[in-house]
């Protein structure tokens, strides 16, 4: 293992629940000098793009290009994960420049949660971003067969105990309150180690 973080927030949520939005708020409030946002889908997409001769930058943004390859990419990722469940988690966190606080922005499967619990047990906090379907739709979500009923989107809907829930339904005060709570945990932890 290359580097031991002080805290690992493992964020999950349905499509367009606001995972990236929440991760970015957390990062800004904790301090960008302390936080690394880690996308598990990053290395997956990079490898997929290389193997299939595709444009990696376009796969990483929220363009139609990404949507076009989503189903095939999910299948390809499943096959890799079957061979080695921690493969993408390990790849995503093996960068040398990661900071003290890791914010994993896109846990999708139990194997993702298990990986961080197994490797950073005392430091991992699981976070579920919750948003009603109507709100997610207003942010661009449309139900897609083969995507929204696949394990990659439903694997963490049940059977996981979340340490924290973030309510992202449009009430900015409630969202702030939830995020401030997580920020306080980090600040307390960092006080303990300094
Ligand atoms: N509380 C909020 N206030 C304003 N805009 C928001 C809020 N939450 C999310 N959004 C916006 O909704 C859109 C979807 O959010 P985001 O990309 O964070 O969702 P996601 O869960 O990461 O989506 P995906 O599953 O597709 O990666 C973005 O344009 C984001 O800026």
Automatic annotation (TrEMBL):
This is Phosphomevalonate kinase. Transmembrane segments: none annotated. Its EC number is 2.7.4.2. It is an enzyme of class 2 (transferase). Substrate binds at residue 168. GO terms for cellular component: cytosol. Pfam families: P-mevalo_kinase (PF04275). Keywords: ATP-binding, Cholesterol biosynthesis, Cholesterol metabolism, Cytoplasm, Kinase, Lipid biosynthesis, Lipid metabolism, Nucleotide-binding, Steroid biosynthesis, Steroid metabolism, Sterol biosynthesis, Sterol metabolism, Transferase. It is found in: Cytoplasm, Cytosol. The lineage of its organism: Eukaryota, Metazoa, Spiralia, Lophotrochozoa, Mollusca. One of its GO terms (biological process) is isopentenyl diphosphate biosynthetic process, mevalonate pathway. GO terms for molecular function: ATP binding; phosphomevalonate kinase activity. ATP binds at residues 14-20, 139. It comes from Mytilus galloprovincialis (Mediterranean mussel). Pathway: Isoprenoid biosynthesis; isopentenyl diphosphate biosynthesis via mevalonate pathway; isopentenyl diphosphate from (R)-mevalonate: step 2/3.
